[in-house]
Design brief:
- By secondary structure, the chain is an alpha/beta fold.
- The protein has 2 domains: 209 residues, Vaccinia Virus protein VP39 (Rossmann fold), CATH 3.40.50.150; 117 residues, 3-Layer(aba) Sandwich (Rossmann fold).
- It contains 13 helices and 17 strands.
- The strands form 3 sheets. Strands 6-5-4-7-8-11-10 form a 7-stranded mixed β-sheet. Strands 14-13-12-15-16-17 form a 6-stranded mixed β-sheet. Strands 1-2-3-9 form a 4-stranded antiparallel β-sheet.
- The longest helix has 21 residues.
């Protein structure tokens, strides 16, 4: 019996053009307890496609969102001090940009542990977090942040508006890629937004992913990989329009896009129009709406995998051990694609209490505390969250014997 092709999550066209195949892998945030090590692990194909009708790059949904974003979801945003600093600066800039005050209302989608809304609350601005994972939502509430434990979409937006909770600002940082029904998510924003309000969305830029060989940022929790041109098209379909864009260094190169309701009559100023035109022009020049941009991506990923394996094997031949730092989801994609396990990388350290004492999915590498890790006297360190490499290196500046490496875009000393 013939197997039908998956369909695009935006335009429903058949997905037939493969971009990259990273094999079968478990969900990257499915950290294991010691008791689970002897049980079978579910894996899914990690194969990305591009829709040649609307050019949305995407991963077919092999697992439902509630299977990936579970109650014990292990990612806590506040673990990264640099990310909290980023959030604090953003809140200050957004308040100035939109004139937010005590009479305003801010809603963050995927608010996690309150890493951002804590700064909104400090300014005396009413706010609400929407966060489907129970563990992170519970931490947010300890910070005094009202949090709804649900997935966001049209249904929840309508409930909030009926309850007179329309927003002056909707924040959606690094969540758009996580949404299986991206049309419903964007349409919900348009409903929840006040007529004069704005939406702020941050997401890793597809152009940076391709040019930086950032294949490790592909995992099952990331359903979509987004360009500005595609977001412009999807937002328009939902009743939203782009009014400004900023380039950000976060996550290897991100965009912060500002949107307003199409019926609001808000127009971009000349500087914003230039910024939008510059990024749309760069995407066009790179051929993101043709197949040329995606040619060779598989081969570049394979080259990075082989470079990492040579590095780890060489260390073992010398009688040395490379130790990992940062039990990040992107690290799990990399390690599992390369087939690395404890014989080549014996431990990984992480500051997150939710991960310490657990094991990485598939590779079963143990996650230990930074203190225990230091007691092992690591000398060659592989930083798996390479976007935080400088933060990690700075944290151990009093350890001159340590040498730090990253594997993306290719193996290099930091």
């Amino acid at each position: 019996m013939a197997v039908s092709s998956p369909c695009c999550r935006h335009c429903q066209s058949p997905l037939e053009q493969e971009v990259i195949d990273l094999g079968h892998q478990p969900p990257s945030n499915a950290y294991l307890t010691a008791e689970q090590l002897s049980l079978p692990e579910i894996t899914y194909p990690l194969k990305v496609y591009v829709c040649t009708a609307c050019w949305l790059v995407q991963l077919p949904a092999h697992a439902a969102a509630d299977q990936l974003f579970t109650a014990d979801y292990a990612y806590f945003s506040s673990t990264s001090s640099s990310w909290c600093d980023h959030a604090r600066r953003y809140v200050g800039a957004a308040c100035e940009r939109l004139g937010l005050g005590a009479d305003s209302f801010v809603v963050e989608l995927a608010s996690n542990d309150g890493y951002l809304l804590q700064y909104v609350r400090e300014r005396g601005i009413p706010c609400l977090g929407i966060e489907p994972t129970a563990a992170t939502a519970a931490v947010a509430r300890t910070k005094g942040i009202d949090t709804i434990e649900r997935f966001f979409g049209v249904a929840l937006a309508e409930e909030l508006v009926d309850g007179r909770q329309a927003a002056d600002l909707i924040v959606a940082n690094n969540v758009l890629a996580h949404v299986p029904d991206i049309n419903d998510f964007l349409a919900g924003m348009a409903i929840l937004l006040k007529p004069a309000g704005q939406v702020s969305i941050e997401f890793p830029h597809l152009l940076e992913l391709l040019q930086g060989n950032q294949f490790d940022t592909i995992y099952h929790e990331h359903y979509s990989y987004i360009s500005l041109a595609v977001l412009q098209r999807m937002a328009g379909h939902a009743g939203l329009k782009l009014v400004d864009v900023e380039r950000l260094p976060t996550h290897g190169g991100s965009l912060r896009v500002w949107l307003a309701r199409c019926d609001a009559g808000l127009e971009s100023d000349a500087a914003a129009q230039d910024r939008l035109a510059a990024i749309l022009g760069a995407e066009s020049a790179a051929g993101l709406t043709s197949l040329q941009a995606y040619a060779g991506f598989q081969q570049r990923a394979e080259a990075a995998k082989h470079g990492l394996l040579r590095f780890l094997l060489n260390a073992r031949e010398r009688g040395a051990w490379v130790m990992g730092y940062g039990a990040a989801a992107k690290g799990n994609t990399l390690l599992n694609y390369a087939g690395v396990s404890r014989d080549l990388l014996p431990v990984v350290a992480d500051k997150a209490a939710s991960k310490i004492g657990r094991f990485l999915p598939a590779s079963h590498i143990p996650v230990i505390s930074p203190e225990e890790w230091l007691s092992l006297q690591p000398q060659e360190v592989l930083v798996l969250p390479w976007n935080l490499a400088e933060e990690v290196k700075s944290a151990f500046r009093d350890q001159p014997a340590m040498t730090f490496y990253r594997a993306i875009p290719g193996l290099e000393r930091i």
